[in-house]
């Protein structure tokens, strides 16, 4: 093992900065000895000669060495030789990897939900179609971006991977993942295997060959295992599955995720999503772009608030960092609204005189990088409602690679400091922007069909002034799809009603009851705040007849 700990925070004198190099005990499937490197760290928590096991912490990520923002640089290399990619040499025991708290995920399995959907060369509807995937086929996805999943393709000689629209699929923890290893040579993305894996029409050696696994390093998801063969999807002209028999050059992952990880505890990011930021300190809400935001006491309190609010700042992003965001939701979220109270801290440029301005607001249908109006570390691609602190200009905007297009027909200003409620609604190609309950504009645009959402901040100064940032409170997001819940009712021995409410419960937030079907007879019964699950409750009142209904409250 090798360690380096002499770099100060944000020192950039050498390449790796503070780092740890770990000598792996075992060898690769090709028999090489390898080392793992964690670079650009703030602090190292291990020592030379210490033996590490999977899951042991090695230090804290940061921004030392050849780095421009806080992150962890993880790489593997042949001992004394060249770098190589760890994913293709099966260093990981589980193909879907989470950090210890289960808040960040590497790798995922998706199931196609549409009857059929194109697999494209890139993550745009206009990108060329490579082939077609079909309902219930399982694919291994490396990552989502701009409403698409990048998946491995087994049987295409030109494209090792392609993109499936997220609205046509769902993430699952199902199937058995198999990984075809590359040849015993330097890895290249489009290096075809010297000996390709045969894909047969059935789970028997005598069946016909109907395809091939062409490239090494890809991961494929089997939904059936028979006679030593694994059934994987073959995208193409029709819904087809084929059978592969693993060899010594193929890794079979017995589990998708670490069995010690309770999947039920993971954030599901399903609707409704509500957060009032009531606990002072580091916030674990959503996914930060760079660093966790913090909840501070703040005056004046937001409308109906408790005097605490989320402070979002880029101040801890040294180097080129100029923005920060908090990202929530799933890549396939399509028809929904996002709303948040935002404190407008008006700082007129003619009074401040520091040559810059702050911009912040909310966004939805983001491409997954939440770059807001910046291009650094993933450009912003989303619909956003933005406000500038130097002149009070409000923008009901579309962001494309960080470029801002304002839909408002005339320049609009909101001057003065104070809390305001920002809201964006997206339904199909209709994007509605509201401020304090008043519609600013409803735009028609089809650039972003789905994506995640959140809150963001960016600074536009020549330097890095202290104290920069923005305050947010009372965040809420929910679906705009009409998805009626379903009731199941049984009468208990004591006369009480036992009710089960199932379906997309996240689209409903209240149950009402009545003793007749008169429109005037309905009264509030109970709140339902749950998502895609079954809600069980009892009606405590014994009455001869009663009616129930569920509806969404916005």
Automatic annotation (TrEMBL):
<dbReference type="Pfam" id="PF01551">
    <property type="entry name" value="Peptidase_M23"/>
</dbReference>
<dbReference type="InterPro" id="IPR050570">
    <property type="entry name" value="Cell_wall_metabolism_enzyme"/>
</dbReference>
<protein>
    <submittedName>
        <fullName>Peptidase M23</fullName>
    </submittedName>
</protein>
<dbReference type="InterPro" id="IPR016047">
    <property type="entry name" value="M23ase_b-sheet_dom"/>
</dbReference>
<feature type="domain" description="M23ase beta-sheet core">
    <location>
        <begin position="15"/>
        <end position="80"/>
    </location>
</feature>
<dbReference type="InterPro" id="IPR011055">
    <property type="entry name" value="Dup_hybrid_motif"/>
</dbReference>
<dbReference type="GO" id="GO:0004222">
    <property type="term" value="F:metalloendopeptidase activity"/>
</dbReference>
């Amino acid at each position: 093992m090798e360690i380096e700990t002499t770099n100060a925070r944000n020192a950039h004198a050498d390449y790796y900065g503070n780092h740890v190099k770990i000598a792996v005990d075992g060898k690769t499937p090709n028999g090489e000895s390898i080392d793992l490197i964690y670079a650009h760290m703030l602090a190292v928590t291990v020592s030379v000669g210490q033996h590490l096991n999977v899951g042991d912490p090695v230090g804290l990520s940061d921004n030392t060495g050849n780095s421009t923002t806080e992150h962890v640089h993880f790489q593997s290399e042949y001992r004394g030789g060249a770098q190589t990619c760890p994913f293709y040499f099966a260093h990981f025991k589980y193909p879907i990897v989470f950090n210890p708290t289960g808040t960040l995920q590497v790798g995922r399995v998706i199931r196609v939900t549409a009857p059929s959907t194109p697999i494209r060369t890139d993550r745009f509807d206009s990108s060329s179609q490579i082939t077609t995937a079909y309902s219930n086929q399982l694919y291994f996805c490396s990552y989502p971006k701009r409403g698409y999943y990048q998946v491995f393709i087994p049987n295409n000689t030109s494209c090792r991977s392609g993109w499936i629209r997220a609205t046509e699929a769902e993430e699952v923890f199902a199937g058995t993942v198999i990984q075809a290893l590359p040849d015993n040579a330097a890895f290249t993305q489009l290096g075809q295997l010297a000996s390709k894996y045969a894909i047969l029409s059935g789970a028997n050696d005598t069946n016909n060959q109907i395809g091939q696994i062409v490239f090494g390093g890809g991961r494929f998801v089997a939904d059936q295992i028979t006679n030593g063969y694994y059934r994987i999807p073959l995208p193409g002209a029709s819904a087809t599955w084929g059978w592969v028999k693993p060899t010594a050059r193929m890794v079979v992952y017995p589990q998708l995720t670490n069995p010690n990880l309770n999947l039920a505890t993971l954030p599901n990011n399903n609707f409704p999503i509500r957060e009032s930021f009531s606990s002072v300190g580091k916030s674990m809400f959503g996914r930060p772009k760079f660093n966790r935001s913090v909840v501070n006491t703040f005056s004046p309190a937001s409308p109906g608030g408790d005097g605490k609010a989320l402070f979002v700042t880029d101040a801890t992003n040294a180097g080129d960092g100029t923005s920060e965001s908090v990202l929530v939701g799933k890549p396939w979220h399509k028809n929904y609204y996002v709303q948040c109270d935002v404190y407008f801290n008006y700082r007129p440029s003619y009074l401040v005189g520091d040559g810059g301005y702050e911009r912040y607001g909310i966004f939805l249908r983001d491409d997954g990088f939440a770059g807001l109006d910046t291009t650094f570390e993933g450009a912003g691609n989303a619909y956003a409602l933005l406000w500038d602190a130097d002149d009070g200009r409000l923008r009901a905007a579309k962001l494309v690679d960080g470029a801002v297009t304002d839909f408002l027909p005339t320049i609009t200003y909101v001057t003065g400091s104070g809390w305001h409620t920002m809201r964006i609604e997206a339904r199909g190609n209709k994007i509605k922007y509201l401020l304090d309950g008043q519609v600013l504009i409803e735009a028609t645009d089809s650039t972003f069909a789905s994506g995640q959402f959140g809150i963001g901040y960016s600074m536009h100064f020549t330097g890095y002034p202290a104290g920069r940032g923005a305050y947010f409170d009372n965040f809420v997001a929910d679906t705009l799809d009409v998805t009626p819940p379903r009731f199941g009712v049984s009468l208990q021995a004591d006369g009480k009603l036992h009710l089960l409410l199932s379906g997309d419960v996240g689209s409903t937030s209240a149950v009402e009851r009545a003793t007749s079907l008169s429109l005037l007879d309905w009264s509030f019964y109970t709140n339902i705040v749950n998502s895609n699950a079954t809600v069980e409750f009892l009606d405590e009142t014994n009455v001869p007849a009663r009616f129930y209904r569920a509806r969404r409250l916005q």
